[in-house]
Design a protein that fits this description.
Elements lengths: L2 H11 L3 H39 L8 H49 L49 E2 L4 E2 L10 H4 L3
Antiparallel strand pairs: 1-2
Helix pairs in contact: 2-3
Length: 186
């Protein structure tokens, strides 16, 4: 199979990808809207609970109405957390859907000796290649909330942009450098 034939076949195989991604984003958007609704309910009930607790002459743990309200708030909070976990699952599925296509492209271009940095160049001598075009992508599950796992440099996407003076990838919103040795130099 020539490089052109492979790329043509590959592009054809991506025909359903946009609709699958769009469907996944719609599910994510729906879960997001449901989360915000749950969060607003939780906050409203929490404010009401605090006001009632301040006005109550009975200790909070002994007032049946306040105990019931607190249990209801805890239930709403747990529902919101479950919705956040559902959003993470949707995001992970979208990531994996796209990542499978990227990994497939990387593997096939490496196997065929295609250099995507210079589309006109096809390497004839595979021994002249210095290494793989890219390493396997990282999984979003390595950064999943609550797992306690923080991605290490071994499983980070090599195409991930590097930031700051420390040349590390972002592990969330980049506000300042987390690297103590760099932060003290600034």
């Amino acid at each position: 199979m020539t490089a052109g034939e492979f790329l043509e076949e590959y592009i054809e195989s991506l025909e359903n990808l946009p609709s699958e991604v769009q469907q996944g984003l719609q599910e994510l958007g729906k879960a997001d809207a449901q989360y915000f609704e749950l969060r607003e309910n939780y906050r409203a009930h929490w404010k009401k609970y605090i006001k009632s607790a301040k006005r109550s002459s009975i200790p909070v743990g002994e007032d049946p109405a306040l105990v019931a309200a607190r249990l209801n708030i805890e239930k709403e909070y747990c529902a919101a957390i479950r919705k956040v976990d559902q959003k993470i699952d949707h995001s992970s599925k979208l990531y994996e859907l796209i990542n499978r296509q990227i990994v497939r492209l990387d593997e096939e271009t490496q196997r065929l000796g295609i250099d995507l940095q210079d589309p006109g160049e096809v390497k004839k001598d595979r021994k002249s290649q210095k290494g793989p075009i890219s390493a396997p992508r990282s999984s979003p599950n390595s950064r999943k909330r609550g797992s306690g796992a923080i991605a290490t440099m071994d499983n980070i996407d090599p195409n991930e942009p590097l930031y700051c003076f420390c040349q590390q990838v972002s592990f969330g919103d980049m506000v300042g450098c987390d690297n103590d040795s760099v932060s003290t130099q600034l």
